[in-house]
Amino acid sequence: MKNSAKTVVENMFSAFSSGDVEKFVATVSDDTVWIYHGTHIIPAGSFEKKEGVRTFFTNIMERTEIINFEPLQYIVEGNMVVVRGREHQRVKRSGRELKQNWVQIYTVENDLITKMEEFAASEEVKGKNTK
């Protein structure tokens, strides 16, 4: 039985939250394309194929500490899943904290993510842990 498109995306988020790069990469197709449109704080980027998605994942995990990652709403239409969410992270090198609201659009085919496109708004958190 095929998984629903939403279940595939939820499994990917679970792998992301646990820091499991292999389970994360296993949720995408060989020819997947991930596009991040970027903000004034986090630059835009495009990642292709499983190796590109692996780079996307490891860049995040090596450079930041995820304080909170929260998908808030799922909208599913056929094989497309739109997720609205937010996250809070600390940049390991500088200690800066960032909060981000985002919308991610996933296309799922044959139980694998073939495309992800993210639109985000980032802001630096002012507080005792940032300079």
Automatic annotation (TrEMBL):
Domain SnoaL-like: 9-115
Pfam families found in the cross-reference section: SnoaL_2
Source species, domain of life: Bacteria
InterPro entries per record: NTF2-like_dom_sf (IPR032710), SnoaL-like (IPR037401)
Gene3D superfamilies from the UniProt entry: 3.10.450.50
Protein name as catalogued: Nuclear transport factor 2 family protein
Organism: Gelidibacter pelagius
